Amino acid sequence: MSATLDRPTSAVDPTRDGGLNEKTRAERRLGWYLAGPAFVVMLLVTAYPIVQAVYDSLFDYRLTDPENSSFVGLGNYGVILTDSVWWTSFGVTAFITVVTVAVELVLGFGLALVMLNALRGLRPVLRTVILIPYAVITVVSAFAWQFAFSVDSGFVNSWFSWVPGVTADTDWFGTQGLSLFVICLAEIWKTTPFISLLLLAGLAQVPDVLQEAAKVDGATWFQRLRRVTLPNMKAAIMVAVLFRTLDAFRVFDSVFVMTAGANGTETVSFLAYRQTIERVEIGLGSAVSVLLFLSVVLISALFIKGFKVDLSQARGE
Predict the structure, then answer these.
(1) Which end of the chain is more exposed for a tag (fewer CB within 10 A), N or C?
(2) pTM > 0.90: yes or no
(3) Given 3-state DSSP classes, what are the helix, strand and coil percentages for the chain, each rounded to the nearest 5?
């Protein structure tokens, strides 16, 4: 008898070496057929502005004096990255992003649990009601929140006068801290429904068999949440956090309507607007936009690498 044992041919996984079965190949082809046209159109629509912004960022170009534009290479990027205004705007943007995404993730998960465990007849009603804030246009939402917190016409000061520190003369847009609080509150109110629906889709993919097995083993609700629910919806959490982070990092409407960048609330998007539209510095404004784009790309790469989600496994391949 031979001293070694050969692995049975039937036990070899054909996908272990990177191969794909015919069903997976067919699904991928169908996905490309369905998404391909839209992908090509989006690429054509977005490629030109990106290339044009990169090109303009290499010139000292003012819209009021186009004849005297000159090539400066990476000079505009040097001016921006050595200016404290850029780093202040970047810090404000990062603060808004971290606060809003963190709060929305917790609230959205709570809403997703409520919708998942609601009675079957109430689920469509709950989803419709929860989506109402997300359906409101961001500019309209920002004006509504500005009106509510206004010293002259708002009702927040009178309704919450019992809260320590809140009086009839509290100016919510008079300091950086209070202004950022209102901006974050408006963003959280509007986009939490988006997070909740994405997390609801992830909760629906958690196998009931695992939950029942954990209950039989005596696991508490928190233990089931930490060891069963969250690991099995990791892909949904990554998608929700990634999409919302990229959206929050480009926040503009709320800042523009509520404070116009005053009191240290200027974000990176608003800085690009101010340089390009108000000061007609096309070169510097384009450089800010390119840096914002690169920041978003870097955030995407870090999230995808940090979560380490196997999307093929999440699809059941």
Answers:
(1) N
(2) no
(3) 70, 0, 25
How does DSSP assign 49-117, residue by residue? HHHHHHHHTTEE-BTT-GGG-EE-TTHHHHHHHTSHHHHHHHHHHHHHHHHHHHHHHHHHHHHHHHHHH
Q: How many domains does the chain have?
A: 1
Helix/strand/coil for 281: strand
pLDDT of 82 higher than 50? yes
Q: Has residue 4 been placed in a domain?
A: no
The reported pLDDT for the residue numbered 310 is: 56
| Residue 176 lies inside a defined structural domain of this protein | yes
Neighbours of 179 (CB within 10 A): 23
CB 93 within 8 A of CB 270: no
**Domain of 161, in residue numbers:** 85-314
Asked whether 206 and 228 are in contact (CB, 8 A), the reply is yes
CATH number at residue 298: 1.10.3720.10
